[in-house]
Design a protein that fits this description.
heterodimer; A: 190 residues; Rossmann fold; B: 315 residues; alpha/beta; 2 domains; five-stranded parallel β-sheet; four-stranded mixed β-sheet; 9 strands; 19% strand; globular
């Protein structure tokens, strides 16, 4: 299975690559200005987090918008990737009232294939100044934390997922399980 | 699929042999990364490799002797360069952590180039690992801190760079080190710029001596406590000298002394970390010993921050 990581400049982009690699996927980190045509035939995409602030400098998000518009496999946006997904598809992202750094607890209130086999409450690691403030049309919120209402979201029909927290770091509980579930989705939508 | 150290070693030995037709030097600090890289490169190149260890004057207690011993045991051809005076001179008056890091990085390269010339090498092998280049930033990625082995490299560097470990994290490097029979495989990480980034403020021989003494106590006490089963051994544990003086009372006399922060964290790869829940009796012993045995320090505090929002090191 081939799932690539689009690099938006995050500190943990390389961790996403490593988790995917360990789970047996064929993976590669690619620049976020890579042509859509070069990603043809992939089974899934991860849009990484990043130093760019989506609300402040969307220009640094390269071709993420084109991927969201025309890539037909599953896409998992993480942090800045998640925020950009919301903004690009008609929702909104803005500076968080309470930015979160480090340990936090998420509560899953909408069961989803992404969280299959996981408890409803678990510990996650956060690192964000901005957050999704309005869901795009046809998206549903899946999880929240004390200071952030939209910790996870998905499109009703298309396999588009966004996570505010970071499943790729060692200290997030069940992080590898979330990636495993995402890979299952990629497999089944082949 | 998990990481396969044996396959990695075979692959990289071959890759190093291919990329270095002549001679190479390796920058070796004695830590897990650079020692593993030294053994790998030495397997590939034999006597065409010279390991260079620089005693910057910013090393921990007994470190230089220990590194020389390790390299000897591993039969790696090596050279110890004593350069403490040069480093202290270059750091005089500098308080900005990023300036410290880049001055030290430049100094390292200058000395490595000198040694390479003498040895006739045209390649420099480094034990750079993933967090080093990730945190050093570049293009879209923000710079968290300049790692000396990345940020100090001049654009016109004459030596060609070989970095066999650049896609690995510490846990994987440890697996490689174990497979290579490297004794220091479980050693805690120590930053390239050494104690310079554990002295907040100006780096002077006196202040480095204070933090060296305090760090040795932190290491002894935590290792002893872990040995007695009182706590697991943290990922990293050390002392930081703060640029803060506070009031104390010693034998009925007022003193105005230095403050040391004790830092200990648990992590797998250094990219996220939680502060270690050290038992109070262990903290108590550390505090009593530091304030009694290291002259000039009258206050000890414990750092209870995670990464993020903090980083493991203070600078």
């Amino acid at each position: 299975m081939r799932v690539y990581v689009v690099d938006n400049g995050g500190q943990w982009t390389h961790r996403e690559w490593r988790v995917l690699k360990y789970l047996g996927a064929e993976t590669k980190i690619v620049a976020n200005d890579t042509q859509v045509s070069e990603l043809d035939g992939l089974d899934g995409l991860v849009l990484s987090g990043g130093a760019p602030r989506v609300g402040v400098d969307p220009g640094k998000m390269g071709r993420n918008g084109e991927y969201l518009d025309s890539f037909d496999g599953p896409i998992l946006g993480i942090c800045a990737g998640h925020q950009f997904m919301a903004k690009h598809l008609g929702g909104d992202a803005a500076p968080a009232k309470v930015p979160e750094f480090g340990k936090s607890i998420v509560e899953v209130h909408q069961p989803d294939v992404l969280f299959e086999g996981l408890p409803n409450r678990f510990e996650v690691w956060e690192s964000h100044n901005d957050e999704v403030t309005q869901l795009p049309r046809d998206f549903i919120a899946l999880a929240s934390s004390e200071n952030c209402d939209i910790q996870a979201m998905r499109h009703r029909d298309r396999p588009l997922f966004g996570l505010q927290f970071h499943p790729e770091v060692e200290h997030t509980q069940f992080g590898a399980d979330i990636f495993r579930n995402f890979l299952k989705l990629c497999e089944s939508s082949k | 699929m998990m990481f396969d150290a044996t396959a990695f070693i075979a692959e990289q030995t071959e890759a190093i042999r291919k990329s270095v037709p002549g001679k190479a030097i390796i920058a070796c600090s004695g830590g897990v990364d650079s020692t593993a890289a030294a053994v790998l490169a030495s397997r590939a190149l034999g006597d065409r490799l010279l390991a260079v260890y620089i005693d910057t004057g910013l090393m921990r207690k007994g470190e230089t002797e220990d590194v020389a011993q390790t390299l000897k045991e591993l039969s790696v051809r090596h050279q110890i360069v004593h350069a403490a005076d040069e480093f202290f001179a270059a750091l005089r008056g500098i308080v900005d952590p990023e300036k410290k890091r880049s001055i030290i990085g430049r100094k390292f390269i200058e000395l490595f180039e000198r040694e390479a010339k003498t040895f006739g090498a045209d390649h420099l092998v480094q034990g750079t690992i993933a967090p080093d280049w990730i945190e050093s930033g570049g293009q879209l990625r923000d710079r968290i801190k300049t790692h000396h082995n990345v940020g100090g490299l001049p654009e016109n560097m004459k030596l060609k760079l070989v970095e066999p470990l650049r896609d690995l994290y510490k846990d994987e490097v440890r697996a490689v080190a174990r497979a290579l029979g490297v004794r220091v495989s479980e050693r805690q990480p120590f930053p390239g710029p050494g104690l310079a980034v554990r002295v907040v403020g100006e780096v002077t021989p006196d202040r480095v001596a204070l933090v060296r003494g305090a760090s040795a106590i932190v290491e002894e006490e935590i290792q002893a406590a872990a040995g007695r089963g009182l706590m697991p051994l943290p990922w990293q544990y050390f002392a930081v000298l703060l640029p803060v003086q506070t009031v104390g009372v010693h034998g009925d006399l007022r003193v105005y002394g230095q403050t040391v922060a004790v830092r200990a964290v648990d992590s797998i790869d250094g990219m996220t970390a939680v502060y270690s829940k050290i038992p109070h009796e262990v903290l108590d012993r550390i505090s009593i010993r530091i304030t009694n045995e290291v002259g000039g320090i009258n206050r000890v505090v414990y750092d209870v921050s995670n990464k993020p929002p903090a980083t493991v090191e203070w600078e």
